[in-house]
Amino acid sequence: MDIAIEIHNVTKRFGETTVLNGISLSLEKNKIHGLIGRNGSGKTMLLKCICGFVIPTTGMIKVNGKIIGKDVEVPENVGIIIEAPGFLPNYDGYTNLKFLASINKMISKEKILTTIEKVGLDPKSKRSVGKYSLGMRQRLGLAQALMEDTDILILDEPMNGLDNQGVSDIRTLLLELRNQGKTIILASHGKEDIEILCDTVHELDRGEIIQSIAK
Asked: Of residues 210 and 83, which shows the higher confidence score?
């Protein structure tokens, strides 16, 4: 088994409050792994720990063989959407992604344009992001996560705000990405998304894994 992400006995406390409690998971490469659970169950906090945004109180997280917070501060080769993506509201989608891509000079103009098109947006549109619907912002956030062509995608509620056609488009895209060899961690409230997309499903409740299912 080729492991992309290894989570070993991770606990996160804020004062007297325990948000994650002894989480251990091994997430295999080239699969879609679902995280489900009610609001406050710990899904988003676990994703933030995997991404290095939050340091666990105890335990270890290893991404692509490197320990987060020790070998690297944040995982390499990972595309991320957690919570509402933050964009510059007065600029169009392309300009926003071009600005973000300038941090990593490996991304070409053509790559940005094709990625915008891939998520179902018009790459030539001059509409400012401040006038985007929630679904359009979600699509642009997905484009941001995809444009660096990373091996791992970490997506927190990527279908949020999408209409039925948008949900169908993104499901198709995620399955294509898995078939291309990507590893995807998907937190979702949508039971249908989980059933259609995921190879493994892990249910959290009150910061603990209460059930894991491999299809």
From this structure: 210
